[in-house]
Amino acid sequence: EDPQDADTMYNYLDTSEQAGLFEDAAQYLRSFVDANPYSKEGWYCLGCIYQDLRLSEKASDALQYAIAIDKHYAMALIELARVQEEMGSVGEAATTLTHMLEFATERADVFRALGQLYMRQNNFDTAMLYLRKAVAENENDADAMALMAMCHLQQDDVSMASSLAKKALAIDSENPDALCCMAMIYDVKDNFEGANDYFERLIMSNRYTEMHCRFYTIFLFNRGVYDILIDFALESLELYPHEPFYSTYLAAAYFMSNRYNSL
């Protein structure tokens, strides 16, 4: 009825990803951009779906189309940087994000994206420099605070990690990175119930990412909770069918619980 309705397009993308309908979404979005070649949202969503399918070259092309329509399209530029990173071009990804600072109205988003980029490279000191800049731009940026907490946790500074995660949760009680961080802190403290409670809050929030699913899977395996792990890994496989990570942990859980016929 209204091909220019951006919110509907973004909701379609989110729903398709949550339901694991990547192939169906790719087929629909290809048809959509054929009929609406100047829809930047259509090209952006197609790029995201291609990346979900690990089709990085196609994802890059689709996102480049979106950016050609609107060179200041922040969401597409941030996603393009992630695709460039996935393709091994970390320098290009950093350049794409840094270029955005020339025109971005929400500079905190760009600084946060740069922080996440360096976190994924395990360069936590550089990551925190950018995340602090994000908080300086927006003192209520719960996402940046939660990511800083994760950085401190990776550097074994549990006290600072806990303080920042709690600040993030005070601003956003369902912040996924803050919930994940608190779960991992309780795990470090060998408090299974506390860790599991935070992980369950994270999953119930429906704001988790594939990375959070991995953390919960590893937690359950290390704790020997194989029944819950098997159910969760099967659900995760439906959402992320192209990730061998969950099949690997499923096989390990079946083996450790003597369910050899399921291997």
Keywords:
single chain; 263 residues; mainly alpha; 15 helices; 76% helix
Count helical runs.
Answer: 15
Low-confidence stretches: none
Q: Please tell me the overall pLDDT.
A: 94
Q: Share of helix among residues?
A: over 70%
From the N-terminal CA to the C-terminal CA, the straight-line distance is: 48 Å
Strand count, sense and closure of the main sheet? none
The geometry reads as globular
Radius of gyration: 19 Å
Which structural class matches the secondary elements? mainly alpha
Order of helices and strands: HHHHHHHHHHHHHHH
> Could you tell me the number of beta strands?
0
What percent strand? under 5%
Write the layout of secondary structure elements.
Blueprint: H1 6-19, H2 22-35, H3 40-52, H4 56-69, H5 74-86, H6 90-100, H7 107-120, H8 124-137, H9 142-154, H10 158-171, H11 176-188, H12 192-205, H13 210-222, H14 226-239, H15 244-256
Helix pairs in contact: 1-3, 2-3, 3-4, 3-5, 4-5, 5-6, 6-7, 7-8, 7-9, 8-9, 9-10, 9-11, 10-11, 11-12, 11-13, 13-14, 13-15, 14-15
Notes on the protein architecture:
By secondary structure, the chain is mostly helical. The chain is 76% helix and 0% strand. It is built from 15 helices and no strands. The chain has helices at residues 6-19, 22-35, 40-52, 56-69, 74-86, 90-100, 107-120, 124-137, 142-154, 158-171, 176-188, 192-205, 210-222, 226-239, 244-256. Helix 13 runs parallel beside helix 15. The longest helix is centred in the N-terminal third of the chain and has 14 residues, at 6-19. 43% of the residues are buried.
